[in-house]
Amino acid sequence: MCKAIHRILPLGNFHFPGSFAFGVVALLILSGPSSAAEDHDGLKEEIDRLKQENAELRKHLESEGQSIDKVMQRLESLEQKSPAPPLKEEEMPGMDMGKSASPFTVPRLNLQWFGDVDFRAGSKVRNGDNLPDTFGLGQLGLMTNARLTENASVMSEVVFQYKDDESASATIERLQLQYQANDLFNFRLGRTHTPFGYWNETFHHGTWFQTTALRPEILRFHDGGSVLPIHSVGLEMYGYQPVKFLDLHYNIGVANGRGKKYTDTVDSQDLNSNKAVYAVFSLAPVPVPGLRFGVNAYRDVIPPDAGTPARNGNIDELITGVHLIYIRDHLEFLSEAVRIQHDDTVSSRRFTTWGMYLQAGYQSGAFKPYYRFDLLDAAEGDPFYGPQVVDVIRHTLGLRWDFIRWAALKFEYHYIDQDNLDGPHAFYAQAAFTF
Amino acid sequence: MRRISAILIFSLAIAGSTLVHGMEIAIVVNKDNPVDELTMREVEAIFELRQQFWKGGDRVYVIIQQARRAERNVMLKKVYRQTDEGLNKYLLHRMFKGEISDFPQIESSNEKVKQEVRKRGNAIGFIDATTVDNSVKVLKIDRLMPGSENYRLKSEDSST
Asked: What distance in Å separates residue A401's CA from the closest CA in chain B?
């Protein structure tokens, strides 16, 4: 039955079910002999028309198929062709390693932002007044780094932030041209992080890198600066040398000294001809991976300040310090201690300020509980520090949660023993991130 | 059922990229590089970018394999001693401190590492020791070549 219908109708490869074919034939029979006779010619015409239409469709389909075949052949030929040869290094923008003199190549720049947003509740004093709880924007730092040649590179760090008086500021925190002769002899010229011990050079404005929300007390910004000269403008030599069972790291530098206030960094014009000199030596014993310890010293002559009655002569400054660090697997232990000695050449008085911190943390998955003890024992009557630098003992208990790879939340409780505070308790929360 | 089978096959394929059965890693350099051997301590210092220069004075060009490669997993365990995430953070921190100006070059296969090492006289990379050919030089590590009994750059268990 189906074959018969297919013979009558140009249906190609379309197959009717048997019942459907039977129905069509029955319909034709039931339509009556008179109508069949009358419609015979019409039906034949219709069949011819359909045959012609089918032929046209087949022709069209064949032509479409040929087009598709051509496209497929073209695609296959393209896939089989080998990919275009890569550009040579000197032809790539931003890949100049100093070998090409082409004016169209520039050093490749690495950019990285670091930022934090904070919340503080509890003790904070400004001008004798306790401040209310607050949200606050922390710092937004832009680190840029570029290799100029195989041996030379440049890096900068600009920090944007709002100060306590709500004024906005942008500061060049670092701008240094570096030349690496080899692993042992490297040179750095410009504004750098003074390599005191460990923390100052390791974390500084990169809040996301550091476990805690706040810096240690000896490196915290008091009235815009730290009791230590955390930045230096000058020339530094540094290097790394494996020696038997020890890895030796060193930094030696000469830089502009202190400014009028202890918070100042002298960026453009030193106040006297005496340059500050500093050195750091640290050792990492190979048999105890993760352990590092070292010593550091900083020497300067602080010039007199006509605006401060007690400072009518030079002050000899000698800062010495030690650090002991152990970071291995999940454990982090950081400790530093500094002694800041100021010898007033007019009064012949010596003022000695001590500071230290001990910090321990343990990483467990994305969480890191930690504790830090801070101590700052300020010398009474030190004419250089003045009344802003006071004794502080601070206990910090915190939890860091690295909830995603490039961002962390930190929650800290602080117990602070400090004379001018309203109460000893404070709470800090910080979101620190990099992008 | 078909969907479950597909998921299982896909999972096994993914797992296969990190499962290693006694994989040994060969440290390879350009054939023109005069260095023939390194200590394990030097390998660590070079791949952690603490040692940035060859003894001859050329800068070391470090090539590492991309994340989730079995070869990289062995290196993370034996050399870097940290997770992939930890390595990323470590390298970014080195750059933040001004200790490096470039990140290591990342390659996606043993073949591509060999290609780069062939191209660059100062390059060093790591590959699956079974893929070593005469286009690159394999360095002895602590005086041992891959295949030696006490060779240290190999996975100790069946997974890394």
From this structure: 15
